[in-house]
């Protein structure tokens, strides 16, 4: 009798897992489309991409996640679909599936590309990563031109101009209001360091950061920290240096790679903010590096933005700054201009060499 029960139980377990595996495989098929907000993650198999996918799977703001990479995403997709939330995950692998992954997307998150290693600057990555951003931007500008495009691939200061220039060549009416460089990581680092100095909970602190996303363009605005705080000159200098060089410190400590977990958290935080803005939620404010006219002759800048259904609802511009912070921003401007020109010239060069049909 026991052997009969054991046999039946064994068969039941096998049938159970067979059903579960069939469900996961079905969920990974490209034919599935949800009726809610869809986020496409390009570079999903990377360390940042995997963690972003897992966090978004837990968000009620997202109904479908499209995982895209040049390496097989089906296993990752299957594993994520085991998580018992209402968000469905679909798998797309290889260049030929990029358009399918982007189809019907509301938000496109780019985390693909080479990551920094110890001794490298963000700009050592430009040539390789600019090619990736070119491919993704040209495809998204064609397949889902109104989707929010969130670029977290470095160097952000130059790759956002690459994307925006490509969008403008494909869509003459492009305003750049839906193209963002994700600089949220600088903000959460600032909040954490300031909270530690003030002996506050990090989630209770807001310390804005403007400028760009490289050591010499990150401009912490400590004078506008909430709760209102007065720091000594030495504390301001120490905090500013810590915020600007946090990425380098992670590289040194890890030795084998750059920030991934905190970067993924920052990308997820910004993506959910975009989703809330798309849903019409009021008062959604985040920093991002975008096409800007806030400073004359500086065509891209990271500032606080109010997000809405069309992307940038309102650029909140420059906050009130101390003399020290004004000097930091003035020092950053030549670097920002250099970085922007690098991206813009790359697109012009590629456009002339390959022609529109091949590049786009």
Walk me through what this model shows:
- The protein is an alpha/beta fold and 360 residues long.
- The chain folds into 2 domains: 145 residues, Rossmann fold, CATH 3.40.50; 158 residues, L-2-Hydroxyisocaproate Dehydrogenase, Chain A, domain 2 (Alpha-Beta Complex).
- It is built from 12 helices and 11 strands.
- The strands form 3 sheets. A 6-stranded parallel β-sheet has the order 3-2-1-4-5-6, sandwiched between helices. Strands 9-10-11 form a 3-stranded antiparallel β-sheet. It has a two-stranded antiparallel ribbon with strand order 7-8.
- It catalyses: (S)-malate + NAD(+) = oxaloacetate + NADH + H(+).
- This is Malate dehydrogenase.
- One of its GO terms (cellular component) is mitochondrion.
- It comes from Clastoptera arizonana.
- Its EC number is 1.1.1.37.
CATH class descriptor name of the largest domain: Alpha Beta
Q: What quaternary form is this?
A: single chain
User: What structural class do the secondary elements suggest?
Assistant: alpha/beta
Q: What is the CATH architecture term of the largest domain?
A: Alpha-Beta Complex
Beta-sheet strand percentage? Answer: 15-25%
* Nearest-integer average pLDDT: 89
Which parts are unreliable, with pLDDT below 50 for 5 consecutive residues or more?
A: 22-35
Total number of helical segments?
Answer: 12
Main sheet characteristics: 6 strands, parallel
Q: State the share of residues found in helices, binned by percent.
A: 40-55%
